[in-house]
């Protein structure tokens, strides 16, 4: 089993380091365009191995895709992160060029790889990778829902005064302020969350979740990395161990939830073939309206990418 992580910045290096700690892979290849970055972080990770007891070696590479050949899973994190005052959508033109060229190189050397996109704006960069990879959409999808749901679960754990481990939740829609947390599908060790928290507090947590990425950008001057890197690693593990885990992922829809030809966050089953199933929940009218609004926003940004392609064609 071989995994490549493209982009050895905050998110990519964290993802590789989390995978090393899980200790189920021989090697993780970490590739960056900036000379020395991937090599330096990989060496640091290997020097952590005797302390934290793992055997997975992270190998750093500067832009040589032949070293990524025959990867089973590739995580794409290359691209600019947000700065304060920016929306994810502001990154589109720079990151689209990066994601397109990276995906083409990956497709050349690892034609059968499952591709997980992390770069922002997430839904549209996943679409960009899908167009460049020219492969089954079940093998090209994005990481956002696990992170957004984790933020929601962490805020709930603080408010309820319980372990975040005991909070199960699902969240749908685009990776942006229009995301749709679903309190009807949120439980705390099987107890409906509405029995443990007042409606006002729940509404405030949902709002904080929607702008959870921006809260960190304002604190740090760049976007988050521990939780995003760990979320991508969790997807890699589910695929390579064929775990059939159910996660919210950014998936290509072909009629599910009434949407077609769009990448959107929905619950899926992840296994060795990538997305093995998209789960269709019976949403109520209010939830459907929120999901429609989110899909409309994602579609607008996808249209911007399509226009850019026409201009550059
Ligand atoms: N999906 C999510 O939930 C989520 C969460 C956090 C961050 N992100 C996004 O992930 C991306 C990475 O964030 P970060 O904080 O790691 O940024 P970063 O700046 O720390 O790292 C990005 C890395 O990509 C590298 N890079 C740029 N062009 C490249 C190319 N052509 N080939 C290979 N490497 C290249 C850079 O040298 C840099 O090391 C950003 O777009 C960010 O917005 C997404």
From TrEMBL:
Domain of life: Bacteria
Protein encoded by which gene: mdh
Key words of the record: NAD, Oxidoreductase, Tricarboxylic acid cycle
Listed EC numbers: 1.1.1.37
Keyword NAD: yes
Catalytic activity: (S)-malate + NAD(+) = oxaloacetate + NADH + H(+)
Biological process annotations from GO: lactate metabolic process; tricarboxylic acid cycle
GO molecular-function term, one example from the UniProt record: L-lactate dehydrogenase (NAD+) activity
Record's protein name: Malate dehydrogenase
Span of domain Lactate/malate dehydrogenase C-terminal: 147-303
Residues of the Lactate/malate dehydrogenase N-terminal domain: 1-142
InterPro entries: L-lactate/malate_DH, Lactate/malate_DH_C, Lactate/malate_DH_N, Lactate_DH/Glyco_Ohase_4_C, Malate_DH_type3, NAD(P)-bd_dom_sf
Residues annotated to bind substrate: 82, 88, 120, 151
UniProt record similarity statement: Belongs to the LDH/MDH superfamily. MDH type 3 family.
Species this protein is from: Chitinophaga costaii
Pfam families hit by this protein: Ldh_1_C, Ldh_1_N
Function comment: Catalyzes the reversible oxidation of malate to oxaloacetate.
Entries under NCBIfam families matching the protein: MalateDH_bact, PRK06223.1
Active-site residues from the entry: 175
Gene3D superfamilies: Lactate dehydrogenase/glycoside hydrolase, family 4, C-terminal (3.90.110.10), NAD(P)-binding Rossmann-like Domain (3.40.50.720)
Enzyme superclass (EC): oxidoreductase
Amino-acid positions noted as binding NAD(+) in the UniProt annotation, renumbered to this chain: 7-12, 32, 95, 118-120
